[in-house]
Amino acid sequence: MKLRRGLAGFALLALAPLAACQSSNPATDLSRIDTAQGSAENISSLSSVIDRTPNEPEAYNMRGAAYGRAGRYNEALKDFDKAIALNPRSHNAYANRALIHRYLGQNDRAMADYNQAISLNPNYDTAYIGRAEIYRLAGRSTEALADLERAIGLDTTDPRAFYRRGLLYQASGQHPYAIEDFAASISLAPDAPYGYNGRGLSYLAQGDDENAFSDFNTAIRLDDKIAESWANQALVYEKRGENAKAFKSYTRALQLDPDYAPARDGLSRTSS
């Protein structure tokens, strides 16, 4: 896929659910750390491997990934520390540890680890994608875009690269580019709801309510436990004047996430 033009006029859209679309979902990231699942059985199996080969760095890296998938971040950090101590040139261990640091709110440490991973392997797409997310969430959009362009230029097959670049284009109002990137992320991860939510919001910004509604409904079908999807669906109902249906979808969104402001605001608009 060709590289895009730079971000122009970086202003947020006046769409209530957009902030949700721009958030990062931990489950999406953790699924990219490693193929190891975070089940007790897998962790036990990897622990047995470590017992047999206590000096094998990749065993700690894999168990750290499993701990990360299970949300056991402190244990994950210890394993990644051990993997790096045993193999200081393990670029993927640095990137894995960086991701855990980010989830713990330790962005300076995460950035240092991503920088080290890139220093060890300048062609490691995962590290560019991870570092770009730190830049993006810090409002450093130009740097985020540059890292995502680099990852995509390396022919990454990671859907996050396209999804997050789509978010940057969406936030700057470049919706045709955003829609193309969200479509690319969907093609790489057709069972993940986030690309559909992102593309739906850009369709909605262009006045294409029908395609937006279809994407939001697909996101709900794929995972009906995401508040953003229900609030996005409600927004289309609201635009159509179907306030009773909108109220019901906003209510569902708030049940899933009581702190989700777009759903709370939408509920207030459609309650009468």
Automatic annotation (TrEMBL):
Domain of life per record: Bacteria
Keywords, comma-separated and alphabetical: Repeat, Signal, TPR repeat
Span of the signal peptide: 1-19
The keyword Repeat appears for this protein: yes
One matching Pfam family: TPR_8
Protein name (database record): Uncharacterized protein
Annotated InterPro entries: TPR-like_helical_dom_sf, TPR_rpt, Ycf3
Protein transport keyword on record: no
UniProt repeat feature TPR, residue ranges: 57-90, 91-124, 159-192, 193-226, 227-260
Organism, as annotated: Nitratireductor pacificus pht-3B
